Amino acid sequence: MGKTGWLRNAWYVAAWADELTEGPLERQIIGEHIVLFRQESGAPAAVSAFCSHRRLSLAKGRVTGDRIACGYHGLEFSADGACVNVPCQNAVPKGADIRGYRVEERWGLVWIWMGEAALADPATIVEVDHWGSPDWGYNCGAAMVYDCNYLLIADNLLDPSHVAWVHQTSFGGTSCEAVPMRIREAPNGFTVSRWITDAPVTPFYRDLVPFDGHADRLQQYEVRYPSLAVIKAVFVPAGEGGEGSGEPWGPRAFVMDSYNFITPENEGRSRYYWFQMRNVRPDDADLSMAMSAAVLAAFSEDLEVLNEVQRGMDTATGPFVSIATDAGPLRFRNRLERLIEAEQAAHTKVR
Ligand code: FES
Ligand SMILES: [Fe+2]
0.85 exceeded by the pTM? Predict the structure, then answer.
């Protein structure tokens, strides 16, 4: 489980853009300690965290213009990690440079490329449909920290069946349990989906769905490598949905796209960034706040379960079984493992 290492040639979320205001910020991402800061232009920058002199974290330093200065003896580094000044001496010693990372600000988030800089292509950052559209509302919450491996979260996101058990009072309802999932493979991940037809609207969505009576509901979980998910929830009046139906939805449809970005800090800790886009009441700030609170409450249910699953994995001995609903998560893990192995093999070859 997660024994292969990390997918490095990928964009990970490093921070919310508005977390990066005053001063530098230290984060751990796939095991590496990184310090983020803003340059004079406002563009974000990221360098490895520890000063090449006596290893003080640059998060304790100061940003001046486009440089970050260590808070101990003032070594200065530019955004690409080059050491550009050592106070009280003329030359910069060999080996004083640290690593710089490619970063991009998009969708209110700061993204970091953890692999080879030459391969970083901002066009491969996930698209967010309807971003900035006046017809769509937006809500978000602070990042959540899970004390578990990121793959347990990916498993969870590819497993809509857990909704009926973990989220009984929010996303779920008794109608969810029996309907089987469809799994489709895409170049960058897997999609698991199903239609639940002619069912009552579950509690989380009751105030959002703009029609009365039973609904046809689409649950679609798309999880991409290494660990991001776009979850689509669609409710249409009963009879309008079901397999084969699709966009454009009818005028009474409720659509919510949930964007979920999981950044592994290390093997046992993960940071979870999320926001939702909805096609109803776009300017309703109270609704946005209520949705964020409800999503936080529901995700806290996942967090509690997954932290305990991690404890079970760390504690129990012997094998564990898999069941039918594990098909999506297991295929995802297998493909990701192969991608990581291929990346590592390519890296070894060029060295
Ligand atoms: S520890 Fe950073 S300048 Fe000395
Ligand atoms: Fe969940």
Answer: yes
